Amino acid sequence: MINGRGLNTQLKADFMMLMVTMLWGSSYLFMKMGLDSLQEFNLIALRFGIAFILAGAVFNKRLIRIEFKTFFYGLILGTILFLVISAVTIGLKFTSISNAGFLFSLSVVFVPLLLAIFFKIKPEKKVVFGVGIAIIGIALLTLNNGLMINSGDYLIILGAVFYATQIIVTDKLTKNVDSITLGIIQLGVAGAWGLLFSLVFEEPHLPGTTESWVSIMALSILCSAIGFIGQAVAQKHTTPTHTGLIFSLEPVFAAGFAFIFVGETLPAKGYIGAILIFIGVVVAEMNFKKPFMRKRFHKAAKGSKA
Predict the structure, then answer these.
(1) Distances in whole angstroms, Cα of residue 223 to Cα of each of 51, 165, 218
(2) How much is the pTM?
């Protein structure tokens, strides 16, 4: 049973998660802005490099006491994070902000599917149903008149698969290590990979316009450093179900920012597809058993009183 104080703490945590989700929803807009003057890996290097420095400065005492195991796990997770962000950042060059937001939210339904494939954990019926709805939504959102999906949409979906992989690997690796230190190392590794790839394939440089600096600093401070710290703090005081449901609002925020700031709209079938993807994600995340069990419990209690 949750007392008043515990409920108040959870509500605050849920509100913090909502703010983090809104920040991450804005990241697609800022990435699109940054890509106007920066190449993909250059953008990634700056975003995560600055975020690593800021988060490291806040939690410097934790970094000083870092263990090799934590660093090694951070290396693994940071590499996967680099793959996630690379796919999304490159994909954004060829698709819309709204498409990217809704397609990336599919990571929620990819998690149970990957668990079923690699760990033989049978997905629940609600997940299968949610996936079915989401697939119809993907078709409506992305298929053009020639029944083709563009390369940008493919890359965003690939990024969602990578992110689902990261969620599973994170769950396996965060046992018995400091999660905040692990997250900071993850940011640094992603930034280091971005710098390496930028040096090899691009000509890295600092942003040359005010708009580019705004996008980089927003991505670094708001979407990465504050987003990471906020998530780490909030998840200590709320449930995984609440977290998943709140995070499912990310594509809604992404579409909202795209409409407000760049006037981006979708065709009618695109909006229907986006809504179906959102419904599919929520269905996959919702816990339908608890309310039913509570109802049965109350009925049983009434029966015993009679």
Answers:
(1) 9, 20, 6
(2) 0.83
